Structures are given as C-alpha cells and as structure tokens.
Amino acid sequence: MSDITLDTAAAxxxxxxxxxPPASQIGLPAWLRANLFSSWINTAVTLVVAYFLVRWAxxxxxxxxxxxxxxxPDNQTxxxxxxxxxxxxxAVITEKHRFILFGTYPYEEHWRPALCVLLFVGLYIVSAMRxxxxxxxxxxxxxxxxxxxxxxxxxVAGLTYVPQERWGxxxxxxxLATFGLAFAFPLxxxxxxxxxxxxxxxxxxxxxxxxxxxxxxxISLLFMASVxxxxxxxxxxxxxxxxxxxxxxxxxxxAYLAEVVRGGLQSLSKGxxxxxxxxxxxxxxxxxxIILPQALRMVIPPLVNTFIGFFxxxxxxxxxxxxDLLTAGKTAIIEPAWQGFGIEVYLTVGxxxxxxxxxxxxxxxxxxxxxxxxxxx
Amino acid sequence: MSETLExxxxxxRTDAPPAILLDKVNKWFxxxxxxxxxxxxxxxxxxxxxCGPSGSGKSTTIRCINRLETHQEGRIVVNGIxxxxxxxxxxxxxxxxxxxxxSFNLFPHLTxxxxxxxxxxxxxxxxxxxxEELAMEYLARVRIPEQAKKYPGQLSGGQQQRVAxxxxxxxxxxxxxxxEPTSALDPEMIKEVLDTMVSLAEDGMTMICVTHEMGFARTxxxxxxxxxxxxxxxxxxxxxxxxxxxxxxxxxxxxxxLRGH
Lengths: 377, 261
What we know:
The complex is a heterodimer. Chain A is built from 16 helices and no strands. Among the domains of chain A are: 108-161; 170-322, Orthogonal Bundle (MetI-like fold), CATH 1.10.3720.10. In chain A, α11 (241-267) packs across α13 (283-298). Helices cover 67% and strands 0% of the residues of chain A. Chain A has helices spanning 7-12, 27-35, 40-66, 78-82, 91-102, 111-128, 136-153, 170-195, 200-214, 218-228, 241-267, 270-278, 283-298, 300-313, 325-332, 342-371. By secondary structure, chain B is of the alpha/beta class. In chain B, 43% of the residues lie in helices and 24% in strands. Chain B has ten helices and ten strands. In chain B, the strands form two sheets. Chain B has a six-stranded mixed sheet with strand order 6-7-8-3-9-10, with helices on both faces. In chain B, β7, α7 (187-202) and β8 form a beta-alpha-beta unit. In chain B, α4 (112-122) crosses α5 (128-141), α4 (112-122) runs parallel beside α6 and α6 packs parallel to α7. At the A-B interface, α12 and α13 of A face α3, β6, α4, α6 and α7 of B.
C-alpha cells in the first residue's frame, strides 16, 4: 500500500557484510578508557578517588570485622571498651537484637512478632508478583492483616493477651508503614479524583483536606492525635494510642499521595478523556480502565519516593512514646553497661531500614519498566 | 461511482427520519460567539462533509453532536433523542455515535485488540469472545488484523487512525463523526485512511466529516457544508459548492485551498 519500501533501491546497492564493532570499542578495556581514563584529569581524579575508597574500605573491614568483638559474657563490656575506635562491638547487637526487633514484648512470646514480621514480608513478596494481581489479593491482605492483629494482641486461641503498650521494635515500624500506606493510597486516589471533580462541594472538601493536612508538620499531627484527640472523646472511651498514631499517618500520607496521583491525572491529554466519553464509557469505567491505569504508571517514581519517605517517617512516633524500630534501638543502649555503643546499633537499625527501602526502590524500577512496555517502540 | 452514491443517498433522504437535527444552535466560549444559529439536517445514510477555515466552528459543531461540547441555545436531536442534561439520553446517544479524532486518541496502555473490545464489553455488555471476534472482523476491514496484539505506539500514524476507525465501528454506531481524521498524518498515510472512509461510505454509513480533503468530499459527500466564523455560509452538493460558489467567503476559501495544494 502506501507503506514505502526501499526494496528496489536496496537491490542496486552492494551489500556490505555486517561486522562486529572494532575490538578497541567494546569490552572492559574500552569501557574503562571511555569512563575512567579518558584524559589526564580524569585519570588523576580516578586514582585519587580510588585511593580514598580503598583506604576507607580497608579501615571499615578492620574496624567492623577483623578487630570486632562479637559477643561478651554476662554484660561484661570491658573487652569492648578497650577496643573503642579500633574495633566494633557487635556484642551489643548479639545481646540486644531481640529488644531492637521486638521491644518490650514478653520475651517468651517473641515468636509472635517474629512471625508477624515474616507474614509482612511474605505479604509484600506475594503482592509484588504480577501474577497474583487479582481480586483475591485483597482478601489475602485482609486475612493476613487480621491474623497479624490476632497474633500481636492475643487473648484468643490460647495466646496470652499482650497490651499494645508492650509492642515495639521492627514490627511496629512495619505495622505503621503497611497499614498506613495500604489505607492512605486508596484514600489518595479518591481525594485526587475528588479534587478534579466538577461538583464544587466535593472539590472544595478535597482541596481543604489536602491543604490543611499538608500545611502542618507530621509531628504536630501526631501530638494532636496523642494529646488533643482524647479530649474530644466521651468520658471513659479510649482509643488505642497506636491506632491514633496510625490514623494520623494515614491522613498525612493520604494528602501527600493525593497530590502525586493528581500530578499523574494532570499529565493525561484531554483526548484520552474525550475518546472514553465518545465511546460511551461511564465515569467509573473511564476512570478505572483509561485514566487511572495511565496516570498511576506515570507517577510510579514519585509514588515510591513518597512511600519510602513515609516508611522512614514512621520513626517520628517516638515523640509520642511508641517504640518503633529506631526508638527500640535507642532504648537498647540506655543500660549503663551498653552505653556508648550507638554506632553499632544505629548502623544495624539503618541497615534494616535500608533493606526495606532499597527493595522498594529496586522493585519499583522493575515495575516501571514492565508497566511502561507499551511506550517502547 | 459517485453517481450511484448520489442515487442511494437521495433515496435514503426521502425515506428515512433525520439522523441528526441541529436547530439554531448557538455556543459561546466565554464571550466568544463560536456557533451562530447553526441549523443542519442530516438524513440517515447521508454523508456530509464540513469544510471551512480554521476557527470557523466546524469541529465545535460535530463535537456538540455527541456532547463533548455543550451548546447553550437551540436544539440538537440525534437519532430521535434530544440532547439535554439527561445522562441517560446522553449515554444512549454516545452508544450510537462513533467518533474519530484528529489525534487518534487511542488508549496507549491497551493493545489494539483491547482498544477495540473495551467499549463493546463494558458499554454493550457483549461477551469477551464475541467482542474479540467482532474486533478482528473490523480490524480486517481496515486491513490491519495482524497488528491486534501490538500497542498503539508501535504503529504508524495511518495505522493508528485506521484502528481508531475500527474501534468506533466495534460499537456498531448508526452515525460516524470524523474530526479532521487526516490532518495529523503524513501525506503518504492520508490515502490509506481515506480509502477506509470511502469504503465505509459505500456501505451506507451516516457520516459527518470535517476535512480539507476536497477529493474525498467530491467522491463521497452527498452534501458539502461550508462554515466560516461560526455560521453555515453555503451548503449544497459538491458540484454546487466547489464549481459554483455563491459567496465571496467561499470563493476566497476555495482559492486558498487550491493554492495550498
């Protein structure tokens, strides 16, 4: 048809046999030359940076592994103190890791929060796999989150009751982050759609919500949830402190995520809306099949950015006395025998945060590539 | 060929009720008066081409027919249903009116096949398998069945526009609206889209087409409408309008079009 082909032209041109690029242009040597040693300045920079990197790495290995103390008997930390600055005292982690992970949860019941952490991780992994993206996944979430609640509280099925005040450590961080984002994300989508609604009341309500929540720091919201909110409740009625903090985080994250989602909605061309309208799709069909799938794909990077931010921001609950991972780590070294081993504890806590955040980041990169395949030519 | 078309169309005009009726339609964008007393009757099976300089209100006119734009005065009746704020009536109209846009507006995240089956499945409540068969039938008709599994971004402009036509046809509309369907295409792709539209016209589809393709208008149109500054200036058979323009505005427009080609 009208597709232009160059067959006739190509026939007249002698065909050159395809060759591989010259050997000097491919492989490791070429890469090194192009990226690290392309000029004398680059070569100098490369060498200086490499020198400091190697020195720092050697120092870290000596401190962290070679000279480190891995355990001490009966809180006798003298061996560690003798090595201050020369070797790490990982004994503090060996000794306190259960406290850092599980806080003041009763010692003999630690298997319960441990199981909860595994359940959370399992839930993340299952949810990350696209072949499980079906309606049933929502039921799995409800089931697992309920099970986690039962395990943590106990009081049923032969489990002893553990009041919320005794929960702590990693499991608190995961609870706050998971419940927080699981509720904040749908809330954010509704608010973002509401902000673009043609109904003035709905639009005003959504704008008010976003601007009010965004206008105050998370810390003040947590304070309000912890101190002011109970004042408004009727006498004798009390809502769990963790739940109040959780609500504050959901509201806060919801406002931020709503703006991210709205950014995605703005980026779609008017033609997409019109094409869906012209085909007779209803508002919800248009939103569900055409608008949101495209808008959300577009905003995966800022969404994950916000997710990661809120995962770490859950540590702010320490100001209202909830023992999350960071607070538990900090509390673990209050005991006189272990005072002064902050570096080791914070490195460990930091590593745990990093694992979760890095996993999120890596996963989102893969997801982005996969979901945006249609943009590849 | 145009002779027989003329014949079929004139017969259709007398027997059938009007598919589209515009009666003194007025529209403003803010203070700008973009449609001025536009009145137009389109019979079932009739093919109307609207032409005119840019900003003359051609696109706005056809976008009012399926209410992508709302008119502020006058009546629009499509397929016997009056356009109003009644949502139900609007749904009924959009179901019967297919539209093809200048910029294709395919859904980039869905495959060609999914683009075509989405509305039949969800609006017409057609079983998926049946919808897919129907889609393949229409994709074959616009001569690109082999692209069904691809995404719109992998197709050329001409192919995308043909998919857009197939997508609209999958809803089995009674009326098709074309809003400058070839204006965004490279010259070598215009013909493939026009061919598809001609074949559609030969099947007796009621069509309103905003276009500058005068060749297409001559072969296919029963009637050519010339608009300028928001009003219908002249209207008649292609021969009347192109060979014997009555007004200065149309003469000027035609001379510019001819110079451009």
